[in-house]
Beta-hexosaminidase (Photinus pyralis), 583 residues
Amino acid sequence: MMNCLPFLLVILHLTKTQNTNPAWTWTCKNNNCEKTRAQPASKPISLAACKISCDPYGTLWPKPTGRVELGGQLVPINPNDIEVIENGNENQLVRAGYRHFQMNLQKLVEPENENGESAHLIVTLFIKRPHETQLKLTTDESYSLKISELPSGEISANITAPTYFGGRHGLETLGQLIIFDDIENSLRIPSDVYITDKPVYPYRGILLDTSRNYISVDTIKRTIDGMSASKLNTFHWHITDSHSFPYVSQSNPNLSKLGAYSPKHVYTPEDVEEVMEYAHERGVRVLPEFDAPAHVGEGWQDTDFVTCFNYQPWNKYCVEPPCGQFDPTKPKLYDALEGIYKDMIRQFNPDIFHMGGDEVSIACWNSTPSIVQWMEKQGWGREEEDFMKLWNYFQTNALERFDMQSKEKMPIIMWTSGLTKAKFVEQYLPKDRYIIQIWTAGNDPEVSQLLDKGYRLILSNYDALYLDCGYASWVGDGDNWCSPYKGWQQIYNNSPASYGNTNQFLGAEAALWTEQADDTSVDNRLWPRAAALAERLWAEPASSWRAAENRMLIQRERLVNRGIAADALQPRWCSQNENNCPS
């Protein structure tokens, strides 16, 4: 049960570094900060100080799901005077969590503003099960945070969590409770806080396509930074497609040699290791996807495994150029796939794996004489159900090779497709093994059908969670296929709970396909809209986006402060004059 106690605002004023003549002050009225002229006879309150005290959830994003008590004084602290208490179970991950926490604080304040009296902050992280260092669907990400002022005047912040991942979330929450007060020219923290918190959904993701256009490791890292700041936990790496093959497969390096846009546009084993470590420290799993049997082409030119590659006119054989699809009848194809699976399992150490499986073109297979002849030898026809048998032949053999390389039969994710239709899905995709990711419209009857059949689902409905929508078409006139643009409000209100059967929804994922995005635009396509999804999945709030608007503007500023080029949502005036912009 949520317990939000009102924040008793008590501001400690300094004399050495105050902005002594501020023109404006802010007062909390009806959970909104009201801007008024500062009066000489009264002490002004900064906008940041007002915001952390005025909203029931302060400056937190996503909002906590348990008990929330914010009170006491706003006490000045020095980011260079923070003590980390070793609790006997510290490991490399915990030390990294502390380091990132302190780095984020350093970004809040300029060095010349660190003068004046300040309290010593003592941070202690208690991890009950420090040996649980891999994020899984069953991982407990809960935490509790208690901030108190000691008799000595020092501020104590104690975080308790079952696992590092919950503890890291607690550190993020602690960091979000520290504000920069531009009137007092100091960092400040409330001195009496108690929060209990845990996510509603275990899978909270972002998909980033790095094949249509190459995305640099630095941009991937910034994406992970934004995820960490918003408590998203799954970076779904759509690393290859028909357009390019940037992934350097150690079992078959010729794929990236032929398939990358250039020798510089690749992800080496060292790059993958760097991304993995970066994400792990920030509480994010990296989920690799090797999409098949469609969405293949570049890189495979020296094999006979791909049919329909760059066939024209392309719209007869696939949904976008260049076309390309595996020929399931080639026995050596599965040796090549096993090598890629071996590479990915060894490098990514996944607890779940994405095998793609969307947008398979029956027309492509039906136009390939060798495939049709092979099917005839099996006694199959050329109807839809016959091509589903062919697809199942591929999927069965691919999964068998995957299982030969994995230590356990881990869950497999596949996109909604012809194979997930009601008349095929139970026959070919056992519900105890497969998780279905929904990319079709939110009102697609297939969603309810899959729920009724007992499948676990991940929601990525394009009409709310495709972040590449709302731009000009790149293959013709007009707008791109999934227009219009999806605003953060629509994303925030897109709830898995609206379908019922919420226990079957593992969560949801926003997707950025990069036909029309690259390093220059990834940040502002993703952020801050993906943060709206983050609160939906963490808290599953009963309220709409309007109740979250003030905090969303704070989160956008937080992302920018951390070096992420998050898009603007409103004129800054709206943030300084809360509740004056919504119609």
User: Anything to note?
Assistant: Residues 30-197 form a domain with the Chitobiase; domain 2 fold (CATH 3.30.379.10). The two ends are 31 Å apart (CA to CA). The chain is about 30% helix and 20% strand.
